[in-house]
Amino acid sequence: MRIEQMIEQRFVCSKCGGNHCQTKEVSMSGAGLSKMFDIQHNHYLFVSCTNCGYVEVFNPDILEGKKRGQLGSILDVFFG
Length: 80
Known about the structure:
By secondary structure, the chain is an alpha+beta fold.
């Protein structure tokens, strides 16, 4: 089961108590060379409550115990 599915099944909004959400993976560049070359190696999951709109941010690397999105980072170097 993917981490997004697990979050959606167990979700309870800490603001309003709602139990429905949407997840979206977002990639961002870091500082230094990755910013200059627009290499987006930082990946996060944004989880939005569909009832009140409150958003929580999770690091999927920590939740899954492994680095995520390495192929995409490598392709960013070659294809921008």
